[in-house]
Specification:
The protein has 8 helices and 6 strands, in the order αβαβαβαβααβαβα. By secondary structure, it is α/β, with parallel strands linked by helices. The protein has a single domain, classed as Rossmann fold, CATH 3.40.50.
Length: about 160
């Protein structure tokens, strides 16, 4: 499965710990990360995940945040007032909702605005649409987080759900 390949690429690129808000689509990734020996913390709010990751990054480590796109709105203030101004770059894995194939109308407004919300903060998103993109996107996002000290969101696009492996 692509989830295991993704988890191994993240760990291989330097991710040391992860925090998340439980989500059905992210669960296989979380399981793969823990199966590979990575510590995973479960928190209750997205802004808590950003604060935890910022603190871990400030201490010199490389954290990972996993969240659903609908929770991004909760974390924008923490990203814009903590991670960005202090150069605390780390990768975010954002499970996209509200895009191709979405059936829940409540997910659509934020889901289709994720890239624009982050763009207004000067944050570039890196869309993952196919398993073969994993190595390049993971290494690139981690290099951006580490070297350019930028928050580096990898968006799990709906295309992944419709592809056969």
């Amino acid at each position: 499965m692509w989830h295991t390949k993704f988890a191994r690429a993240l760990i291989g690129a330097g991710v040391e710990t992860a925090v998340w808000i439980p989500d059905k689509r992210l669960s296989p990734i979380a399981e793969a990360l823990t199966a590979e020996g990575l510590r995973l913390r479960t928190l209750t709010r997205e802004e808590e995940c950003i604060a935890y990751a910022a603190g871990y990054r400030a201490a010199g480590g490389m954290p990972l945040v996993l969240m659903q796109s609908s929770g991004l709105g909760n974390s924008l203030n923490a990203i814009g007032s903590l991670a960005i101004p202090y150069g605390l770059g780390f990768p975010l894995i954002i499970s996209m909702r509200g895009t191709l194939g979405e059936q829940n109308p409540a997910q659509v407004p934020v889901g289709r605005s994720v890239t624009e919300f982050l763009g207004l903060l000067g944050v570039q998103c890196f869309p993952l649409r196919a398993p073969e993109q994993i190595p390049g996107i993971v290494v690139g996002a981690l290099n951006t987080a580490r070297g350019a000290r930028q928050v580096a969101p990898i968006t799990l696009e709906s295309d992944l759900d419709f592809r056969l492996e």
